[in-house]
Amino acid sequence: MTAIDVLDKSGTEDCAAASSVEDVYRAHSEFVWVCLQRFGVRERDLDDALQEVFVVVHQRLVTFRGEARITTWLYAICLRVAAAHRRRGHVRRELAVHDFSEAAALDQSSPEDDFALQQKQHILSRILDELDLEKRALLVMFEIDELACDEIATILGVPLGTVYSRLHAARKAFEKAVSRYHARTRGGCQ
Fold first, then answer.
1. pTM of structure
2. Quick one: residue 146, left, alpha or beta (phi over 0 = left, psi -120 to 50 = alpha)?
3. Contacts of 152 (CB under 8 A, 6+ apart)
4. Lowest mean pLDDT across 87-91, 108-112, 147-151, 182-186
């Protein structure tokens, strides 16, 4: 399922769907998962972060008044959970060993190509980690998930012009992070 499909699915729900945590989970867990990924929660920590979000939903659902879309409310919760996750330095040092799959066996790319792709993804991840969460999420939504600005405005619950100005600021911050990365790697400090 693409990020746009998740948006389409979650965008059709209104505050009436917020009658129970179970209903919210069924209707919006994929949306929450995607948001947490956008905020840089690592794949191996997503289950824990997802659970943290729905613990908050369980505690606060009675206070949700429906003044905003439920996806906007969930987005704000995801932002806070991801920020707390990063503050705690909640990064596990061990790496999961991926299961060998038939898809990998049939993959026609060379080991060198696979390694180069992994390196590029690692560098992008490190650069995105330097951005604040809101800028990171906005860039991922626009540049990687290829969401339109009006869709992003709907998710964030802000006017379209605000998305444009925040996207401009996020791109500038990304360019600075790329420059810092290149300066560090030229100096021999990775």
1. 0.64
2. left
3. 138, 141, 142, 163, 167
4. 87-91
